[in-house]
Amino acid sequence: MLRALRDLARTSGSEFSDDLSAVWGAAFWLLSDPQTPDAVNAEVLRAVALEDGVRVVDRRAHVDGRLGVALGIDEKYPVQFVFDPNDGAFLGLIGHPARSKNWVGPDEPRWTTTFESRIVDSAPRPPENLLDDFEQSNGPPA
Predict the structure, then answer these.
(1) Whole-angstrom Cα distance, residue 19 to residue 11?
(2) Is residue 136 part of a domain?
(3) Burial of 119 by CB count in 10 Å (0-12 exposed, 13-18 middle, 19+ buried)?
(4) CB-based contacts of 108: which residues, under 8 Å, 6+ apart?
(5) Do residues 54 and 5 touch, judged by C-beta distance below 8 A?
(6) 60 pLDDT exceeds 90?
(7) Less crowded by CB within 10 Å, the N or C end of the chain?
(8) Does position 142 have pLDDT exceeding 60, yes or no?
(9) Which portions of the sequence form the region Disordered (predicted)?
(10) Which of 2-11, 22-31, 63-72, 93-102 has the lowest mean pLDDT?
(11) Number of domains making up the chain
């Protein structure tokens, strides 16, 4: 998996300053894509957790009402990957707004991104009146 993460970073056209940055960036791309299968997320988390420089930054990270463990690297990368310690499932991302050198605000607010997936037997249907306003105008709302 680490080789695949490095290859993804290298072929993406992005230039990373070091190997850990490349792996972390590629992991972020995969973990933040809601179409990435749960099994792939689990492999990504396992691979990233074994990298030198990755550490547990919060053993009680709260994401969308769920408690997990947050992995992170130095302050240069304010995004943390949160997983369920019981089953290893990816719970989401936690980050902090970009801070300038004059930052005087608190550690909060933090942003979170979570995903929920379900197996369904049919595609969702939009509400019947979804386009009512659009069809009565000369185009999409501005």
Answers:
(1) 14
(2) no
(3) exposed
(4) none
(5) no
(6) yes
(7) C
(8) no
(9) 118-142
(10) 93-102
(11) 1
Sign of the torsion angle spanned by Cα atoms 28, 113, 92, 54: positive
Establish how many alpha carbons lie within 13 A of residue 85's alpha carbon, considering only the half-sphere containing its beta carbon. 11
Predicted TM-score of the model (pTM): 0.69
Let me know if residue 6 belongs to a domain: yes
Give the span between the Cα atoms of 1 and 39, in whole angstroms.
12
Residue 58 lies in a domain: yes
Q: What are the distances in angstroms from CA 111 to CA 11, 18, 55, 107?
A: 29, 26, 20, 11
d(CA 61, CA 77): 17
**Assigned domain for 77 exists:** yes
Q: Name, in order, each residue with C-beta under 8 angstroms of 74's C-beta and a sequence gap of 6 or more.
A: 53
Determine contact, residues 40/96, Cβ cutoff 8 Å: no
